Amino acid sequence: MVKAVILAGGSGTRLKPYTTVFPKPLMPIRERPILEIILRQLHTSGIEEAVIAVGYLAELVMTYCGDGSRFGCPVTYSREDRPLGTAGCLGQLKERLPETFLMMNGDVLTTLDYAALLDYHRRHGGIATIALHRRDIPVDFGVVGMNGGQRIIEYTEKPTLSNLVSMGVYAFEPRVLDYIEPGAHLDFPDLIQSLIAEGEEVMGYVYDGYWLDIGRVDDYEQAKADFDVIAPHLGI
To answer: Model pTM?
Structure first.
């Protein structure tokens, strides 16, 4: 059984005041919360169960999603009594994730094909695969390069930096759970750095389609503006 773990327990501080009332995964994109969109996408990608990790305003998430049957994707829950970080919740799920699984943030709006990501992950044989997106970041200042002394050797006015960034979507082999202590706080950067330090193969899957993390107010508003254009490509 192919499962996906959805992180839906954060307090969404960057989206306040919206998230004072709603947990971030229930923020609506037009008539549907982002979490419902994700669950419907997972169903069409062949995911057979979603485990939703809940914490902040957990009852609202659990009441809205129920058993997941109306979205076509069966849902179970993992509840945190205290924040465990972005990867720590996996420590509570060792017995529930015996096969290759997906893990993702509960605030990602993307046209990514999750089945294609899983196929790529299996073909390349790593312990983990991170979905990546190229993000251009404009810098609103002149950027200066110096030669190690006081002499300026380079000046670039308002450059745009281009980097591959994590989409907040991952494919994992179950043995990744051996690196996570149950009940311990752990964030994803620390987990990935531990895997690399131990010589594990961590792969990257570069995706150039639509992706937006709605964790900030500006991005949330952008997602609502984009929705009519991308909706036919969401697979729901």
So the answer is: 0.91
